[in-house]
Amino acid sequence: MGKTLVAYFSATGTTAKVAKKLLAVTGGDAFVIQPATAYTSADLDWTNPDSRSSVEMKDKAFRPPISGKVGNMEQYETVYIGFPIWWYVAPTIINTFLESYDFRGKTVIPFATSGGSGMGDTNIVLRPACPGAVLKQGKRFAASVSEKEIQKWVQSL
């Protein structure tokens, strides 16, 4: 059985909490998707149409640069990809990450956090970023999700 990677972007720490529980369940390796320029709280103000996150999400072609790379991505068979839901989809930095590697033959499984939004059109938007991958339907979790609930989800995949 191939190795598992849990790669995640966490703007405020919420997705990181869920990712750590997923790591405990899967025994996978972790990779934190970090923007080359960190987001400030002003950048994340979704109520401000001029905030960095609002501007990025309006331009679906925008790809925020990432700091760091996964070493030996080819060793991973399964890649869980975590993020907060922004405007009913994954932030464009997730596209940057996916487009940086060859996912052909790999299983990609999104997981997300949100204050209330579901996964929306996330898979539709992410599919072109990982051609040749088996892109599973993702799941949104509350920050308070238990490790047991995550284990049940992983076993259902």
Bin the helical content: 25-40%
Proportion in β-strands: 15-25%
- In this structure, how is the largest beta sheet organized? 6 strands, parallel
Mean pLDDT: 92
Query: Secondary-structure element sequence?
Result: EHEEHEEHEHEEH
Residue runs with pLDDT of under 50 for 5 or more positions: none
What is the level 1 CATH name? Alpha Beta
Tell me the number of strands: 8
User: What would CATH call the homologous superfamily?
Assistant: Flavodoxin domain
Shape: globular
Structural class: alpha/beta
Instruction: Give the number of helices.
Output: 5
Amino-to-carboxy terminus distance: 15 Å
Task: Provide a brief overview of the structure.
This protein has 157 residues and is α/β, with parallel strands linked by helices.
Description:
- The chain has a single domain, classed as Flavodoxin domain (Rossmann fold, 3-Layer(aba) Sandwich), CATH 3.40.50.
- Helix content is 27%, strand content 22%.
- The chain contains five helices and eight strands.
- The strands form two sheets. Strands 1, 2, 5, 6, 7 and 8 form a six-stranded parallel beta sheet that branches.
- The chain starts with a strand and ends with a helix.
